[in-house]
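It is worth pausing here to work through a concrete case rather than discussing structure prediction in the abstract. The textbook approach is simple: state the sequence, then state the predicted structure, then interpret. We follow exactly that order.
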Amino acid sequence: MVLRRVLVAIGGKEVVGSPAFTSEGTMFYIHTGRRAMQKKLYGCAVLLVTGMFCCLAVSYAADQPAEETKAENRIVAVSAREGLNPSTLQATPGTTVIWVNHSNQPAEIHFLEKKVTLACGAPVNFFIGEDGSYESAKIPFGGTASLCFVEKGKFEYEYKASATFYPLSEKEHKGIIWIQ
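Step two, the predicted structure:
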């Protein structure tokens, strides 16, 4: 049986009520007065307005441009024959320099005068040496090393072929990283 609200005339007044049944099966109407109906309508209106406000707020937030974090990567190709390409690069703080070893022997990167003592992210194939600055581990053929620069300055470095497995190449190539 479907229960629904009906408008009933009781004592000459129209009353809104819901049908109900007694234990004997007699049907009667539960009176919901005008005050109760106004409260329900008011509650629905408040919910509707709140929902609309939330939708507008989310829509406005979605239209705002997100603050961009400019992550920049620079790649330096390392080769025993051809040296460093590029040998000099300029970047901003937060730039990650990635060295890719294209030579046929392991390579190492050594910073000369100004040492890198602070880096962002997780350096790859670099470790903190005894003097507190970053030092390169051996970069295998086809391998990479990366370091994110935070401090401004001129970082001079040299590439050396490692003599661990192969005869040492006499060539040393120098490079400069300017962080401005």
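Step three, interpretation. DSSP finds one helix and 14 strands in the chain. The CA atoms of residues 7 and 13 lie 10 Å apart.
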